[in-house]
Write a structure and sequence with these properties.
With 91 residues, this protein is mainly α. The chain has a domain of 59 residues. The chain contains three helices and no strands. Helix 1 crosses helix 2. 1% of the residues are buried.
Length: 91
């Protein structure tokens, strides 16, 4: 279907770079397909997949791959490294 849309050029350029799309049309189609896929996954998770909440947590526990964002970059955690021992606040 042919249509006219106003799309932010910077966003479209990022989508093309991230997805490897060769054309603007391909980039838009890929982005829309991914959005539809994500919505379908959310619906499946809401239904519980026939699993208890504990089973779902165990099955979908974060892995090392989860530390990657959608661009394949490592996401830094906001945790402070445990260097040395903490001083006691008691006196």
């Amino acid at each position: 279907m042919k249509m006219t849309m106003h799309i932010d050029e910077d966003v479209l350029a990022r989508v093309m770079k991230v997805t490897g799309a060769k054309t603007k049309t391909q980039a838009v189609e890929m982005a829309l397909a991914d959005m539809a896929r994500r919505h379908k996954l959310k619906e499946l998770f809401r239904q519980g997949l026939g699993m208890t909440p504990d089973e779902l947590r165990a099955e979908f526990a974060p892995t090392a791959a989860d530390a990657l964002d959608s661009h394949g970059l490592i996401v830094a955690e906001n945790k402070q490294a445990p260097y040395g021992r903490r001083r006691s606040t008691r006196q």
